[in-house]
Amino acid sequence: MNIAFVGNFVPKKGSCEFANLVKNFSNNDQFFIFGFVVDQDNFKSIKNKITLVRPFQEGELGTLLKKYQIDLVITPSIWPETFSITYFNSLLTSVPVLSRPHGFPYFLLQKHEQLFYQNIKDLKQKIDYWRTLNKQSRADFCQKIIPSDLKEKQGLKYQLVNEVISLSNQTKNIV
Does residue 175 surpass a pLDDT of 70? Predict the structure, then answer.
């Protein structure tokens, strides 16, 4: 499998956990980092086992996931992601994402337990689960959950963000 860490490679985004996964997992898997590497200590310990892809610009993540034939994205962030556009862009590209059970992705998709893990042992089990599915089955799963669980609530999220921006702009005009 081609497994990617998407985002800045820093401790609060789970760089240590991803490094441990790379060091202790199958030699048949290919690992990638899409983003800036800040955590040099953990990066040095895995740099010979991964492909470092340049940081991506807004709107190009899907193209890069396809170019590198990514099968699974891991976002091991140790802090709750408030929205995680990266998470949803990966799903919209038909690539499943594994993450911790917290933050906005968990709020939206918690009934899909195969997307969330508690610890490194659980993460390995979830990867093994996704490994049993072919690429089309993984894509079908992502597409199945997008209309009901993602697009509807994602639209709501954008609506709320736009309302906050609107209120913020109105407040500026008052002052």
Answer: no
How high is the pLDDT of residue 161? 47
Burial of 146 (0-12, 13-18, 19+ CB in 10 A): middle
- Please give the angle made by the CA atoms of 1, 71 and 86, to the nearest 5 degrees: 135
Two structure tokens written together for 140: 């079908």
Q: Which residues of 76-88 are buried (b: 16+ CB within 10 A; e: fewer)?
A: bbeeebeebebbb
Q: In order of start, what are the domains of the chain with their CATH numbers?
A: 2-174 (3.40.50.2000)
Tokens of 141: 């799963």
pLDDT of residue 149: 47
Going by C-alpha positions, the residue among 96, 102, 99 that lies closest to residue 145 is 96
Place of tokens 């492909």: 51
CA angle, corner 89, sides to 88 and 90, nearest 5? 90
| pLDDT tens digits for range 96-111 | 999 999 888 888 888 9
Q: What is the identity of the amino acid at 152?
A: E
Compute the distance between CA of residue 88 and CA of residue 70 in angstroms, rounded to an integer: 15
